[in-house]
Amino acid sequence: QVQLVESGGGLVQAGGSLRLSCAASGGILRFVVMGWYRQAPGKQRELVATISSNSSTNYANSVKGRFSISRDNAKNTVYLQMNSLKPEDTAVYYCNGVVPVYGNYWGQGTQVTVSS
């Protein structure tokens, strides 16, 4: 059974940094793409960043230059390094993985709160 478990969220002041982790049970090599999404109160879930199996990356315009996604296949973990955080980055952050044929898998989410 595939499970994605996020960690690393918390409360940080504007300008600060956090690193989110997403651990995949059973390994991450089965995922052709993994990514981070976020959902703020009253808003739709939106893409933050993705990383493919060949480590090519994609970022939302709002986080380019501030966030960095990476993966460690040996640790079966995907990371999201978030720097220069802004209050508008406050949201629940979700890890996502796509397995061919089987579809999307989601973690339970981790709260990130940025105070001004």
Q: Can you offer a commentary on this structure?
A:
The structure is a single chain. With 116 residues, the protein is mostly beta strands. The chain contains no helices and eleven strands. Strands 2, 4, 5, 6, 9, 10 and 11 form a seven-stranded mixed sheet that branches. A hairpin with a 3-residue loop joins strand 9 (91-99) and strand 10. The radius of gyration is 13 Å and the shape is globular. It starts with a strand and ends with a strand. 30% of the residues are buried. The model has no long low-confidence stretch (mean pLDDT 95).
Biggest beta sheet attributes: 7 strands, mixed
User: How far is the first residue's CA from the last residue's CA?
Assistant: 40 Å
**Tally of DSSP helical segments:** 0
**Spatial shape:** globular
User: Proportion of β residues?
Assistant: over 45%
| Gyration radius from CA atoms, angstroms | 13 Å
Q: Can you give the helix content as a percent range?
A: under 10%
Ranges where pLDDT stays below 50 over 5 or more residues in a row are: none
Summarize model confidence as the mean pLDDT: 95
| Strands, count | 11
> Structural class, judged by helices and strands?
mainly beta
Secondary-structure element order, as H and E? Answer: EEEEEEEEEEE
Concise structural overview:
The chain is mainly β.
Secondary-structure blueprint of this entry?
Blueprint: E1 4-7, E2 10-13, E3 18-24, E4 33-39, E5 46-52, E6 57-59, E7 67-72, E8 77-82, E9 91-99, E10 103-106, E11 110-115
Parallel strand pairs: 2-11
Antiparallel strand pairs: 1-3, 3-8, 4-5, 4-9, 5-6, 7-8, 9-10, 9-11
